[in-house]
Design brief:
Strand content: under 5%
Number of domains: 2
GO molecular function, one term: nucleic acid binding
Helix content: 40-55%
Order of helices and strands: HHHH
Structural class: mainly alpha
Oligomer: single chain
Low-confidence stretches: none
Mean pLDDT: 83
Domain RNase H type-1: 3-52
Shape: elongated
Radius of gyration: 14 Å
InterPro entries: RNase_H-like_dom_plant (IPR044730), RNaseH-like_sf (IPR012337), RNaseH_domain (IPR002156), RNaseH_sf (IPR036397)
Protein name: RNase H type-1 domain-containing protein
Distance between the termini: 14 Å
Length: 79
């Protein structure tokens, strides 16, 4: 939740994260993205990906068990 607050400008950003958070803030503004907090139970995609501890460049690279929840999240509304 603290990261969401940093991105929204509600919380102070630690010096070592300023560049990264400012980059995220710019991308959020450019793409008109809404940032909100979701509990783990409401975000199965992020939870499943966190267990893999890997970076993926595209949807095609996602593990099989993540693809279903990912596409459901992609085509649904909020948490």
């Amino acid at each position: 939740m603290i990261i969401v607050q940093m991105i929204k400008g509600i919380s102070n950003i630690p010096w070592n994260l300023i560049t990264m958070i400012e980059d995220i803030q710019q991308r959020v503004r450019e793409r008109e993205i809404q940032v909100s907090h979701c509990y783990r139970e409401g975000n199965t995609v992020a939870d499943a990906l966190a267990k893999h501890e890997i970076y993926f460049d595209s949807e095609d690279q996602l593990p099989r068990e993540v693809k279903g929840p990912f596409f459901m999240d992609k085509h649904s509304a909020e948490c």
